[in-house]
Amino acid sequence: MIQDNRAAEIAARLRPRIAGLAPETRLPGVRALSQEFSASAATVSAALAELSALGLVRAEPGRGTFAVGVGETREPDFSWQNQALGSARVDPDRAARLGGYGSADHLPLSWGYLAPELLPAEELHRLASRAAKQARSWAMTPPTGSPELRRVVAAPYRADPNEVIVTPGGQQALVFAMRTLSEPGATLITESPSYPGALIAAQSAGLRLAPVPTDANGILVDRLEEELRRSRARLIYLQPGFANPTGATLSAERRARVLELAAQYGAFIIEDDWARHLGIEAQTPPPLFTAALDGHVVSVLTLSKPASPGLRLGALVARGPAAARLRASRTAEDLGVAPLIQEVALSLLTSSAWPRHLSRLAQSLAMRRDALLAALRESLPQARIAAPPRGGLHVWARLPFGTDTDAVCAAAEDNGVLVGNGRHFFVDEPPAPHLRFSFGAGTPAQFAEGARRLGALFSEGSRMHEPSAVEPGYPNAGRI
User: Fold this and answer.
1) Which residue of 52, 58, 281, 451 lies most exposed, with the fewest beta carbons within 10 A?
2) HTH gntR-type domain: from which residue to which, for each copy (predicted)?
């Protein structure tokens, strides 16, 4: 978990104290501040760095940190920016929760990345050290990525290496694809519920979102056809394997129908293949890209999920004129991903450690998934989970009709538990209250304690749930 929030909190608490100090007054040392605020030295140092950037303190190595006399100042007036900027495209609430929230003290019952102990950290350290010594790690690569890495990435997609474009992470690839394959004001059809990062990527590209419901077998193809006919959309966003947040996998029958509809209506499918390496009891289905010879599918993949959140490397796979346009736009975007990162990724993907890591990861995720489900069954019987996910990282739980998920998540965070507010996974108003839980970042002990705290909140707080005699469509709701 990142600790930016904690550092910002400490900085905010220090500001009024600093304002009352005479210029050149020495502040207490980092060790003393760490004890005062019950925070790590790194967090206190980050808070002091923030204050230094604001011009409120000055750090002198070997001497300490000193208050700066800034004299009388006025509050800045940013009102002019409201008119200059116009309407905001991106939902700040979704965006604020995407990159991380909470502190190391929170129990991570909803988090989109793996726990540190599940990462191939030692292998990454070794490979990075070796890559840093290679001359080509510091040389220029093509904007689309190194030929060797593109060749490895292309293989599972049965693609030509020239159809692969390396990007700095899957999220950047989503934004890049949506912005390049459409014009502002166009419509993007998305499954609903869906990954919030895709929703804000579409907003960033200026697209109008058209949600289509899903079930345990993926997007409802009849409803998809209705939306294509109505909106004439040329862009569809799908997660065919172990979707975030539902864990659903697009069935074979629907996969074929989705491709037929894309061809019939002349639409692109952006295939978010983020869970390619996260199968547990089942292999992730073959990419839709492999069955779309005419270029109706553009695939997005990432190594940040299975390898490390710090390995910001992803890729786009596309065919035809769309691929040519993406390549040209990639050059305009920047001149490529850092060669050192590409070398580390290439070494990892071609090492004997990679399949061993994936095998161990599947076993660990199965154990943690089962532990999370058992904890929810024991302490939060109000949750209803249709079926255990067979891959991915997430569990989608429906709560009793009338539950206020905003209140649940706020109270949970106040009690040291991070859960995903189901409202953020829908384009518009959610049809029912949901929470997203994740099993990749927490331990069984954390799941048990987090579920216990959640269960206590439901028992103690009437604001969590407004009782209803009948729960539409869920006669057996309340059981996992």
Assistant:
1) 281
2) 4-70
